[in-house]
Amino acid sequence: MPPPNSGCSTTSHTKGFITDELVYHKPNGERRFSLDRATIAATTGPRSITILRGDLEAVLYEKVRDHAEIRFGATLTTVDQDEHTVRVTLTDGTTQEGDLLIGADGLHSATRALLFGPEEDFLLDLEHKVAVYMLDKRPATVATGATGTLSSGGRTAAVISIPDGRNVAFFGYRASHARPGEDVATELQRVYGDLGWIIPEALAGLQRAESVYFDTISQVVAASWSKGRVVLLGDAAWCVTLFAGYGSSLAVGGADRLGTELAAHPGDVPAALAAWEAAIRPEAERKQKLGRRVKGVYAPTSPLLLWLSLLPLRLAALPPVRRYMTRRFIKG
Prior knowledge:
This protein is α+β, with helices and mostly antiparallel strands. About 35% of the residues lie in helices and about 25% in strands. The protein has helices at about 35-45, 55-65, 110-115, 185-190, 200-205, 245-265, 270-295, 305-315, 320-330, and strands at about 20-25, 30-35, 75-80, 85-90, 95-100, 100-105, 125-135, 145-150, 155-160, 165-175, 210-220, 225, 230. A 7-stranded mixed sheet has the order 2-1-8-9-10-7-11, sandwiched between helices. It has a 3-stranded antiparallel sheet with strand order 3-4-5. A hairpin with a 2-residue loop joins strand 12 (about 225) and strand 13. The longest helix has 26 residues, at about 270-295.
């Protein structure tokens, strides 16, 4: 199955896109079945927005670039704090200080490692890996605005065609070790090399990709998200993984709520952080439980598990079921 929507109600609909057709393929490229635009809308609900993370980052950057100093390519090397101030040293040799340090630096957070402890104390490995990158051309068998996907033997691959002409390759598969080891091209060829359809074309496109996201799929489980005047946010704090979805929504919503609590507790950062965590943690933990529960859906290991995982979508494609879902979740 393809990666979940990155729903986010705070960004512009001009960056979001709608999938016209979702096509499920057999390993040789033949169609299993497809979902049309109306069925996709019925299954995802009216509040869902599909947006690439890079586009979401661009939206946020444009909003703050004229109001904040932004440095690229620098991260933390040391953190020191007292009751009133946080001081940090960056990899470019400079130092900064402020009232609050927000570590929104992802799954492999340097902030978390410096203040809370080594990474292995917080990561829960869900025994899958993922690779995502942009293709320089759309495979001919994937229609513009459509998503094609296949699953076989604990492996899933998808190509997402965005209406603006960009195309995304997605690979997600079961893996039992904790961190990426092989070169990404070598590993993907080893794992997917026996499959047909557009897999050879997508793997060839990796050689021309400007960048690739390649990592294990892991959750962050932390007893606390703050320490003094330092707070973790987004994947650095709670990473729910693509199995659960909602990662972008939780990160943006969490940042917004953090601002709200800081405004509600002027001059008392610890109190603001405590109120913020109490508000956000229940939802983050619910999404983490969802991710752990449904992880097998993304790369079923046997034909039977694959058939069972696709059955709800096959049923959703039936007109009576789709009409019910539309009445229940969209029009209702």
